[in-house]
Structure formats: C-alpha cells, structure tokens
Amino acid sequence: MLGKRLELLGEFLGTWRAWDGIRAHDYLRSRPEVDPGRIGVTGNSGGGTLTSYLFALDRRFAAAAPGCYVTTFLRNLTNELPADTEQYPPGILRRGLDQADLLVAGLPRPVLLLGQRNDYFDNRGFASAAADIARIGRLLGMPPSARGSFLGPEGHGLSRHLRGRMVAFFCRQLRVPLRPEKGIDPVSEPALAAAPGARVANLGSRSSRSVAADRAAALRRARRPVPGGALPRVLSRILRLPPSRRVPDYTRPTHWGTRLAGVRVTRFGIETEPGIHAMLTHVTDRAPTRIDPGHRVSLWLPHLATSHDIGADPLARSLHRSGEAFYLDVRGLGDSLPVVNDRGFFEPEGWDSMFHGHAIMLGTSYFGLRVLDVLRTIDLLVALGARRVDLYGRGIGSLLALCAGCIHPAVGHVTLKHSLRSYEDLVRAPAPPWPPSSVPRGLLVELDLSDLRRCLGRRLSVRSPWGPQPRSFR
After folding, report:
1. Nearest Cα residue to 13 out of 40, 59, 53, 58
2. What does the pLDDT read at residue 192?
3. Which terminal residue of the chain has fewer beta carbons within 10 Å of its beta carbon, N or C?
4. Pairwise CA distance, residues 142 & 129, whole Å
5. Is the dihedral of CA 93, 94, 96, 97 positive or negative?
6. What local confidence, expressed as pLDDT, does residue 261 receive?
C-alpha cells in the first residue's frame, strides 16, 4: 500500500527503509556501551533485503550477514516469484546490476550469505551470487572466512542453523567471544512493547501514509500548469514511451466469427512490440478475416477483460450498435491474463505487481507499456483507414484511455466510466484497491489526472466515477 503511494511521488520504499537503518546505526553509535567499530548488520527475508542495502550504502557497518534474500532477479522472474515493493530498486536491471552487486559494493568488509535449501528464493541464484562475491573477494585479498556462504536444511526462515552460523561469523569477524545458543525463554508480549499499547503512533509519531499525503500536497502546491501543447510530450516522458511509433503487424485468427456474451466477434493479435500481442476484439456480423475499420470507430478499453465488460456493462454492449466497435485487451489484461480468473490480479504480491516491479527495475513503466499497446493499436486502425478513433475506458481502462487520448492526434472523443478522480486521492486513501500497475511512477511530481482532463476539454465525458476506494472493483 505504501509502495504505490511513494511511486506516484517518484520515491522508493526501499530508500525510506534504508534511511531508517542508517539512523538506527547513528543511534547505536551514540550509546556509550557500544563499540562503533564493531557494529554488524543482519536480517532475514525483508531484513536480508535491508541488510544488503545498508551494506552497500553505509560503510560504517563492519560486516554483514543477509539471510533468505540473496538470489538473482532472473531466477525470481523465471520462477514467477513476486516480491515486496521495496525489493524492486528502480533502474537496477537497466544499469546491469544484480542482488550480488549490493554486497560487492561493501567489499572488502566481511560478508556471509545465508540461505535455506527449501527456500522459495532459488538456491541456484544463491550459489551464483555467492560465487561472484567469493571471486571478487579473492581478487581483493579477502580471506575465505570473510566471504562465505551457508545453506541451512530448512525452509524460509531464520532457523537455529542459520542463527548459529551468523553468530559465529560475527563473533569471529568482530572479535567477540562465542557463546553457544542455549534454550530460549519466551518473553511476554507486554514486556516486548516499546510504546504504550505496542504502537509507536501512541508516542506521537506519524503514519507513513500521512507523511506521503503531505508530500503529495506539497508537490501539488509546487507544480506549475503544463501548457496544453506540451502535455503530450511531458506525459510520454513520464510513461517512458519510445520517441517514435511504427504501425504494428497483426495476426489473423484461424477461426473467426465466434460469439462472446451472445455477440458475434472476431479476434486479432496486435503485435505492439516484438513478441508482445494486445488482443483486439471486433464486434461485427461480417466475420471478417482481416481488420477493416470504417472512417470512424469506437475502441473500448476494459477494466479487466473484454469478455467481462461486453457481458456485464450496458455501455460496452451498446457500442457495436452505433458503428464499428473494437475492444482491446492490453498486455496482462483480458485475453492475456496469465490465469483463468482475476483472483491473483489484485494480490499485493501477485503476478501483476511482479510485472510492474520488474518494469521499474528495467527503468520503464508497465502502465506506460499498456498505454503503448493502445497507441500502437490506434496507429494500426488509422493506417487501415480510420480517420477518427473514439476511446471508451472503464476502471483501469479509463486511465489508459485518458492518457492515450491526450497523446494520439487521431483520438476524437474520450468517454470514461468508473474512473479515478485524482492520483493524489490514491495517496490519501487508507487501502485503495487500484493495482500498482495502474500507478505511473513519478506522475504527481509534474501532473495529476485533472491536467489530463483539462487537456481533452470538451472531447471528454465522465460517467459514474469510482474514486480511490469503490465499493465494488468489478
């Protein structure tokens, strides 16, 4: 939830957490009983992530032992393993870096990689990272004991095997006598509380959401209106769109003239990028074998899937009665959903957020790539004879229609249904269901949706807006 808010502000949750760790280090160094030259950093899972960041960013840490995190980004992707939002550092893959490089940045200080044989973080990636660190450590003259790795026999977690290796490593590197772990006496929950009611908010601290909301308001006050003529260029830059567009090719279906929700349709695959197809559904009784638009066409962008909207939304069903109607499922929606239902779509750590996170690491925008699918499809329709394309977008599709309508000159009227009023509202909402893939990174630094609506002016119609927390998100 917080990661979505910060992305709109052009910030990164991993930075916030790393700063917390650096300030905690500052506090420890201020304590009279602490030797500032013998402070190490360790953690497991999300703590292993933060350990890796801190080891790269704060050279005062004497040694590090990240647990159950280090593998390779490629292994996570090919295993279809989503991660937390702070585990997707912006642009890291675009710069040719991997998880091991976070620890290489801290060498020649000692480091121990900890993992588990049955962890969902792939052991092959763990072995690759460990080999890279050992090789570079050897070149830097580090002894083997200062650049090690260990795999425990269990699943994800800081088991006694990992704890034993971690404690022995720090005792050896920081010159502290080793005392073997004995039985652990549980501490009562009230005794563990560091604040009244076990909530730091009761000490007067502010929530992360309120801090993000204040920053969004400050950005709004500092923004200057973008001139209408410059808005397409500014929006294209924010969405990381390529500078030029080509007319895409498309695939003709083997079987056409099928029925969808009682309507006769034909489907085509639009190759918006090499190997990437957006699925275009044409509602027509002619059952054509090629895309043959009229001079004025309607293009519907669904909330989640064309098949759902044609069957359930009256406006979507009515379009084909007023002229040539097309419906577009962009990448990751509708016909290209990786699952047979949408249950995994809105999961905080689902496949949609995984695609979004990898786009961020690659220095691009998953939302922007979906807008690209719309723009390429409009290019194709225009090349095949359409003089005007009216856009209709619902829910998630309304955000795509709003952006594409501001950018493409062939777009006539834009109709939004179940649209979001403001991205700043999304920052303020407690738990908005809008997925991270509908959040353009950094947009609130320069724009909000009101600027896009202003750009369209009288060419825009808005019906039944949803807001940040609609009762139903179907």
Report:
1. 53
2. 92
3. C
4. 16
5. negative
6. 66
Give every residue of the chain whose pLDDT is below 70, as ranges: 253-262, 285-287, 320-323, 339-343
Q: Say which residues have a Cβ less than 8 Å from residue 92's Cβ, sequence separation at least 6.
A: 73, 98, 361
Fold of 231-463: Rossmann fold (3.40.50)
- The residue count of the chain comes to 474
Angle 231-238/396-407 helices, nearest 10 degrees? 130
Listed in order, strand segments (DSSP E) in 72-173 are 111-118, 147-155
Sign of CA dihedral 376, 381, 386, 391: negative
How many Å apart are CA 59 and CA 107, to the nearest integer? Answer: 9
Q: What count of Cα atoms within 13 Å lies in the side-chain half-sphere of residue 86?
A: 19
Please tell me the distance from the alpha carbon of residue 69 to that of residue 113, in angstroms, as a whole number: 9
Distance CA(143)–CA(107), nearest Å, equals 12
pLDDT for 319: 84
Q: Provide the pLDDT for residue 284.
A: 72
Instruction: Provide DSSP, 320-376.
Output: GGSSEEEEEE-TTSGGG-SSSSSTTTT-TTSHHHHHHHHHHHTTS-HHHHHHHHHHH
Best CA proximity match to 419, nearest among 456, 445, 376, 388: 456
CATH of the domain spanning 2-182, picked from 1.10.8.60, 3.40.50.1820, 1.10.357.20, 3.40.50.150: 3.40.50.1820
- Look at the pTM and tell me if it is higher than 0.70: yes
Structure tokens, 63: 């040694």
Calpha distance 219→280 (Å, rounded):
38
Neighbours of 1 (CB within 10 A): 14
